[in-house]
Amino acid sequence: MSSFFVTGTDTNxxxxxxxxxxxxxxxxxxxxxxxxxxxxxxxxxEISVGDCVGSKSDYGTEDNADVLTLMHTTKQDxxxxxxNSYTFSHTMPLFTDQGExxxxxxxxxxxAHLNRKYQTVVVEGCFGWLSPINKHFSFADWVxxxxxxxxxxxxxxxxxxxxxxxxVQSILNLGAPLIGWIANRINPCLGHYAEMIDTLRNKIxxxxxxxxxxxxxxxxxxxxxxMTNIERxxxxxxxxxx
Length: 242
Description:
Keywords: ATP-binding, Biotin biosynthesis, Cytoplasm, Ligase, Magnesium, Metal-binding, Nucleotide-binding. Pfam families: AAA_26 (PF13500). Helices cover about 30% and strands about 20% of the residues. The protein is an alpha/beta fold. The chain has a single domain (about 1-40, about 105-240), classed as P-loop containing nucleotide triphosphate hydrolases (Rossmann fold, 3-Layer(aba) Sandwich). Helix 1 (about 15-25) packs parallel to helix 2.
């Protein structure tokens, strides 16, 4: 009956790992939760011309790693197409013929279907907060229209303070409820980690939900244990999508 949106300060900051962590933390509280990735794009840079032309299928080869991680994290029996609306074999479908395939109505219908079946739907975005879905909608537009609460994933690296504060400013200015943020340590050699976390704590007007350390293959690990603000997470299940 409720859903919320996981966005990031950039691409490759750990949105899928953070989504898995949230799902596992809620599952530990016996909350019926499912993950949903509306649009999935491969991270491979080497593509053929044929990959960029229109395709009749919305799902490609159904092998996107992010979607598969959400499938494996979800305890319910779901199919690839249950939790994904579009999969593309390259990173920029909007700038190819395939961008015409992406229909907001289909994404809305898929989300509504999951909301009817499950107690909580964790929706993982693609790229960053203001990234376009198609030529008419950004992820921010779509989330604001649904008034979904937002969780921001911060990949702790050089420049993340600037990226984080700009993203937080945009979320709040657009009127989306910011539930909290998650710190994901993506660079184990980065100095002054604690100082960066303290700075972000003081600058962000939303609580820190958890800190995910740099670990090997986190998509296969129990990362729910790193979500320390469980009370804030359980609030999410009471917020209904309009």
